[in-house]
Amino acid sequence: MVVDLQLLTCTRFLAPRLAQWQGAVLDVGCGEMPFRGLLGAGARYTGIDVPAASDFGMARHPEVLPFDGVSIPFGDGHFDHVLCTEVLEHAEAPEALVAEMRRVLKPGGTLLITVPFAARVHHAPHDYHRFTRFRLARLLDGFAEVSVEERGDDLAVLANKLIVIGMRLARPELALLWRLPALLVLAPVAGVALAVAHGSLWGGWGSPMDPLGYGAEARKGPA
Description:
This protein has helices at residues 5-18, 94-104, 133-139, 154-169, 176-203; strands spanning 23-28, 43-49, 65-66, 79-85, 105-116, 145-151, 213-219. The protein is an alpha/beta fold. The protein has 2 domains: 5-152 and 208-219, Rossmann fold, CATH 3.40.50; 155-203. It has a 7-stranded mixed beta sheet. Helix 4 (154-169) packs antiparallel against helix 5 (176-203). The chain is globular, with a radius of gyration of 19 Å. The protein starts with a helix and ends with a strand.
């Protein structure tokens, strides 16, 4: 059973869309390029990321091009599609980065974005935002077509939090005398919550008002 519910819901949102992409694709803040393998056979992939990504455990890949986190080093209308997953929360000026992604898209090109909502602080101190669906839609005002959907629900959030607590309790620097009993109590509860969360992701049992995050698809209008 998949434990990383953020990754699972991102993949569910992205996979059917990326499989249809053809032509030049830009992955902004690509990290270790986890979604590159979902692209269609006709896609030509380019990944860019900030040099500091390696400070947070990201492996260095020679094919990933550096950029400053705002200015994308390509000309106007260079790409057919742009991907930006779990990145905007780390952008000091997300409006500027979205404007740059729109600039490098061809007319009619597609932008896919995912952002977390219920997520712990990560990549500190460069974790600046949590976006609602309304804020995300406002960021994409300059596009001709925009759709935003929730990733996960409150049951997935509950399971995710229990898993995070369990991982923290399992750290070896914590005293075994009290963390072992806590883990013995938490493990079955987290297991049940995870099973319920998986059921909810497929059956829609939970509330979308408290999601793990959001996915957005936007299309650039004609020139």
